[in-house]
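S1.2 Input.
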Amino acid sequence: MTGQAPIPISPHDKRRRFATWLSLFYGTTFGLGGTYLPFFPVWLKAVGIDPSWIGTIAAVPSVTRFTVLPFITGLAERRRAVRGAMIAAAFATAVGFGAVGTQHLPLPVFLLFAATACVWTPMVPLTDAYALRGVARYGLDYGPLRLWGSVAFILGALACGVLVDIIAARHLIWAIAGMASLGAVIGLGLQPLDRPKAAPAGLHPAGALLCDPGFFAIILASALIQGSHAAYYAFGSITWQAAGLGGVTIAGLWALGVIAEIVVFALSPRFTLPPAILVVIGALSAVVRWTLTAQEPPLALLALIQLAHGLSFGLTQVGTMSLLVHRVPGHVMARGQGYLAACSGMVYCGASVLSGVVYARHGQGVYDLMAAMAFSGALVMWLARHRLQPQSAASGG
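S1.3 Output.
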């Protein structure tokens, strides 16, 4: 029996398919974040969970980042199954959020959400590792690929913002679960990458990354700066809702920040400053942002402050990814991303739990604590900049 030989796929088509499906997966992954971050706390409050529990539940993903996550990223890398792990995690996440939505008491919500977070939180570092390998394989830029995640974040936040004014807040969990399900389906289209070549003899193992002062400075600075967003993620929407703002306005405020983030990602290939300096700028922008937010600004000023998210988060992310792609060998990139996520998780966990306690007593004063964290991250990166400079030739991914 004879058959036609398969038509070979050109390198250009492989590059295009990789970029397309990765952009879509980034979109659904961060679209899930766009529905989860602003409105999961609102759902928790709507089903009767008090602020101290909300702060604790919000910290759960951070705990999994420094416990379960490094194990999963390391296992996926050893098995050379990063793509498969991404797809499996996406399906498990969809099932997990659906299960969370069936519960309304603090302890069952906490336990089911903890199980969900164990499979959900590895998705971003696995996707970033997959993306950075593709960046190296096909000569792409990280920022323009990642920006589609930010676009979807806005769409998810706006969709939930509209839903807040249409349906009861206790039903918002189903929008979150629906977005997770869409991500699972999109994940099936992710393109396999060529298997990474065996590590050259003489390269240190993945565990030795933690003994590299430069690598440790990168992940610590990033953890402090990004962790300073903890109070914003946990209590921003609750505070705005208490101030009388409607769901669409709240979603719009989140969207303003992410629009600025998208602009930063889109322009990142043109950045010429050293990545370490980009991280310092992002950190100092966070200091200013949180200091002003602590003053309970009016809506007009708050809208302007939200634009600083492009620097406090976006510029920090661009600088961090560029530092990692030049500092971490490709054969241990997934574990390098896992260590970054673990460090971020430890810092964010403490910040989230502490922010719940401080917010309950001092309200917006919690942002002064966040400003101090961001300044600490700026200081770490500033002191390490000379150590990182020789290996940081580009600012884009």
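S1.4 Remarks. Confidence is low (pLDDT under 50) at residues 198-204, 390-397.
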